[in-house]
Amino acid sequence: MDLLSTLIAVLRADGAVQFANAALENTLGLSRRTLEGADFSAFFTDPALLQTALTGAKVQDFAALRFEASLRRPTQDPVPVHVNVAASERMGEMLVELWPLEQQARQDREERLREQALANKELIRNLAHEIKNPLGGIRGAAQLLEMELESRDLKEYTQVIIHEADRLQSLVDRLLAPHRHPHLVGDVNIHEVCERVRSLVLVEYPQGLKVVRDYDISIPEFRGDRAQLIQALLNVVQNAAQALTERIAQGDAVITLRTRVARQVTFGRQRYRLALELHVIDNGPGVPDAIKERIFYPLVSGRDGGSGLGLTLAQTFVQRHHGLIECDSVPGRTDFRILIPLP
């Protein structure tokens, strides 16, 4: 039962917890030892719902009963759950299964984003190749034309063509970058990655920006592509710094790099015993509502002059490590969370 992502509780006839699996421990934020012997209905915002279901199961009014309820958590908001109550094969025991509705919605959203990312990646790669070939011809023709022109004024026009062709070439190269570089796997220390990114960003923003370290140094090394992870994290941190322009000018901009180990987590519709949880938190204005659901799409940017490729490339590199990036944003606090499975 500890390997299941659903929340499981085995109850005695009096409704006291006899067993709680790891997923239920994590959701409630309480240890198994604390839960065992406790009245399980007390963890519901409406205890009568579970009590009624248990009474019906005892007298065998039904084989199983399903209902929706809210599960109390000591230090967090209640979590809505779908509950299934059934009598166990062992006399006097009740089996209670709970599915967090927000978890199901999150998994559906992750699956949708993953499918969209794959479709976007294929579209971008094909489109970039189609643009690349005629672009070289346009630039070459402009250079030949410039050689034939004597008028300085006319040469300014050919220079515009060449400059814009180079700019588009650079954009195409960035679109194709994730597909060109091989995945070079080695041992990665995530804090070396964080320190590298931190130093690069502070060189770019030497004043007005504070980058706070909040590391869990017990996190083990894992197999991955160090260069790709540096680029992914750098893109996310630079995106945060660019959103902090006004606060940097005021001198109170803060970006926090936080590393933690997450246990028994589910993402990408797969259960992992351990995962790296890397947060990039800033105190900026937040992601605009208009693009909040599309920030990882290519060419979507919340600022003027942005290419809209930084977060797309970051998500691509993290997905190469079987992970994903999530974003939780409100005015004054934006949290990008990078999840990567650990051995």
Automatic annotation (TrEMBL):
PROSITE patterns: HIS_KIN, PAS. The keyword Kinase applies. Residues 126-343 form the Histidine kinase domain. Residues 1-37 form the PAS domain. Member of the two-component regulatory system NtrB/NtrC, which controls expression of the nitrogen-regulated (ntr) genes in response to nitrogen limitation. Under conditions of nitrogen limitation, NtrB autophosphorylates and transfers the phosphoryl group to NtrC. In the presence of nitrogen, acts as a phosphatase that dephosphorylates and inactivates NtrC. It is an enzyme of class 2 (transferase). Transmembrane segments: none annotated. The keyword Signal does not apply. SMART domains: HATPase_c, HisKA. CDD domains: HisKA, PAS. This is Sensory histidine kinase/phosphatase NtrB. It catalyses: ATP + protein L-histidine = ADP + protein N-phospho-L-histidine. PANTHER family: SENSOR HISTIDINE KINASE, SENSORY HISTIDINE KINASE_PHOSPHATASE NTRB. Its EC number is 2.7.13.3. NCBIfam families: PRK11073.1. It comes from Acidovorax temperans. SUPFAM superfamilies: ATPase domain of HSP90 chaperone/DNA topoisomerase II/histidine kinase, Homodimeric domain of signal transducing histidine kinase, PYP-like sensor domain (PAS domain).
